Amino acid sequence: GARIHLENLTKIYPGNPTPAVDNVNLEVKAGEIVIFVGPSGCGKSTCLKMINRLIEPTHGRIRIGDEDVTDMDPVKLRRKVGYAIQASGLFPHMTVAQNIGLVPKMIGWSKSRVRNRVEEMLDLVGLDPREFHGRYPRQLSGGQQQRVGVARALAADPPVLLMDEPFGAVDPITRDHLQDELIRLQHELHKTICFVTHDFDEAIKLGDRIAVLREQSHIAQFDTPEAILTN
Ligand code: ADP
Ligand code: ADP
């Protein structure tokens, strides 16, 4: 993993003078899972989208490792950052293999390297490559779609993973299972992870540290689950 550093990060959307994210300063250590927990509309997704360069910050800087990535070319950023969202994030007209291979292909990996990597990623998230490779997202259960979403985010082996309610669309039992798998994966891969949820139990279970956010992503608390539970 690589350290992520947000400095005075602010987003004001056009047509709304109240910042969605107001002057956030936060450091995620290399290899750490930080959970962003807070009510709907407090700016969690906006923070992740800025880190992933899906939207431009109004002010502030973003550093990954020692590099300022605030103005980095998005394709180049894909080597550093993987992004997983709810199941709907899969492209419906692409097979599982095409979805997972998308970023590696985009950053110029050879066909055979992409093919091998897709198999490896399917194994990693517990889906048999022979069975799932050629399926379309609609031919998968919710839990399987989430697994493919995680596999896609990991495919180009980025040091940083951004996960925006990645298990939000699955039933509680599958969610519990996927949470356990994420913990297992993290022990193997040591990614630096920013994980957004509004589920406090999920935050406690998965977080090395938890950022409790209020409106405009103001940080009310930033501490370990143990410390937050005793406060
Ligand atoms: P969360 O992820 O915590 O639910 P969001 O980051 O999605 O919050 O939204 C933060 C705030 O910014 C909300 O008030 C939301 O209505 C507003 N917002 C989000 N996206 C846009 C947009 N594209 N244009 C204008 N306002 C937006
Ligand atoms: P949307 O905002 O409509 O979900 P985006 O422009 O955010 O679409 O992204 C297009 C697709 O590419 C999304 O489904 C998203 O999950 C995927 N994607 C975006 N960034 C990354 C990334 N860093 N790694 C892997 N997949 C990504």
From TrEMBL:
Keywords: ATP-binding, Nucleotide-binding, Repeat, Transport. GO terms for cellular component: membrane. One of its GO terms (molecular function) is ATP hydrolysis activity. The keyword tRNA processing does not apply. Coiled coil: none annotated. Residues 4-231 form the ABC transporter domain. Its EC number is 7.6.2.9. The keyword Membrane does not apply. GO terms for biological process: glycine betaine transport. Belongs to the ABC transporter superfamily. This is ABC-type quaternary amine transporter. It comes from Streptomyces platensis. The lineage of its organism: Bacteria, Bacillati, Actinomycetota, Actinomycetes, Kitasatosporales. The gene is opuCA_2.
